[in-house]
Amino acid sequence: GTRAFLFTALGPGGGWADGKTVLFDPDTRERRVLIEGGTKAQYSPTGHILWVEGTGTVFARPFDLDRLEWAGPAAPVVSNTRIGAWGGGAGYHASSTGAIAWIEGSELENNRLVALNRNGDVVQDFGVTPSQWLKLSNAADRVLINNPTGDNLDTWLLDLTTGERERFTFDLNEEESAIWSPDDSLVMWAAAQPGGSRIGYVQRADRSSEPRIAFTHPYHLHVTDWSQDSRYVAFYDFHPTDGNNVYIVDLEDSARVIPIASSGFNESNGTFSPDGRWLAFDSDETGGAEVFTVSIPDGGQKRQVSRGGGFQPRWDRRQRAMYYLDAGWWQMPDSVNVVIRSIRPEGVLAFGSEELLFSFPVPTSFEPSPDGQRFYTFRFRPEARAYVIRVLLNWPATLDGGTVL
Q1: I want to staple 336 with a disulfide (CB 3.0 to 4.6 A). Which of 12, 42, 325, 348 is the partner?
Q2: How far apart are CA 209 and CA 140, in angstroms?
Q3: Which residue, among 289, 281, 214, 274, has the nearest Cα to 247 in the 3D structure?
């Protein structure tokens, strides 16, 4: 009909526990929660509302369109539906003819955290992880990663020597993109808040202190780097109308948030040079992802570093080289190359030639070791990809059993 529509509302955690299915009447402006913990709902001409829960089970419940009320109990339709790690997405759809199609499998075991040498060979494997973000400690002995924890997204700490993992954040909020302080004693991360705002929290890495607020921002953000003098933190936001923008926040005055790249294009992944004079970031202002540097905190001197694609810049610890990928994940390439560009040891920032080190299949987060001999990243597991779409015909007549085609 045309009287109302369904939508999914997510809480600050972005996961399934705080997901709701809401019925909205545009005439009365009434919003009514129909389902707690269920997302991706759709009305079927069979007279049911279908939705999926965090277990991967699709449920159906009779619904009266005239009264806009439930007309019977819920029953499971299919199980093991592939669900998203965040955002309430799920791979199923019911047709108008009584058929339902779904994809099986898990999105939570897509990657393996690995260390690669300069040829791209795996020299150490740290096991399966659903994460796509990592930040290497300055001592190169630990990494911070994002992991879905049940129905939540949290920051975890992984010891590269022992392989042990420890959960670091615990609130029912999306807590992600964590970074290290220069001496590795502190961890900062971005946490979602109701209404879409974000808080930058900081806590001692050994958890001997309680988290405290470092700064706030009105939009979704990722913190990306901490300057070596401990004064500034770089982050980029997801502005609702102006694309992604890069900022630095002055930790001596958290109200001082300095726009570094906010041109209306998509800019992200700001990282400080070791001498603290420059910030490297990527931008699509030329039509594709490229790496730029800008002087900080004034932003007066800007130059383009890459020419054939550049994303996620990383400085060598001695400021003798810069590493970056030659494509961004949003460009969806089949593979990306890790590029190294030398920095000439002169008074000004002077770059030498580019060199392709190796390629890997999925453009995701990567971190070079201090000596540039290892690269920590995620390798996609082909066996985790879903290749089969299953179909159940006439599912309303087979709620108590049926044949999967």
Answers
A1: 325
A2: 23
A3: 281
The dihedrals phi and psi of 404, each to the nearest 5 degrees, come to -90, 125
Report the C-alpha gap between 268 and 290 in whole angstroms: 11
- 75-123 pLDDT per residue, tens: 999 988 888 766 678 899 999 889 999 998 766 567 889 999 999 999 9
Of the candidates 204, 219, 279, which has an alpha carbon nearest to the alpha carbon of residue 248? 279
* DSSP per position, 99-156: -EEEEBS-STT-EEEEEE-TTS-EEEEEEEE----EEE-TTSSEEEEEEEETTEEEEE
* DSSP at 229: T
- Tens digit of pLDDT for each residue in 282-298? 999 998 899 999 999 88
Buried b (16+ CB within 10 A) or exposed e, 209-238: eebeebbebeebbbbbbbbbeeebbbbbbb
Q: What DSSP element (H or E) covers 326? A: none
In the sheet with 5-9, reading across from the earlier edge strand, the strands are 5-9, 20-25, 30-36
Q: Are 289 and 309 in contact (CB under 8 A)?
A: yes
- For 254, phi then psi, to 5°, come to -65, -15
Cβ atoms 207, 168 nearer than 8 A: yes
First to last CA, the chain: 31
Name the one residue in this structure whose structure tokens are 């979602």: 192
Spatial separation of the C-alpha atoms in residues 163 and 253, rounded to whole Å = 38
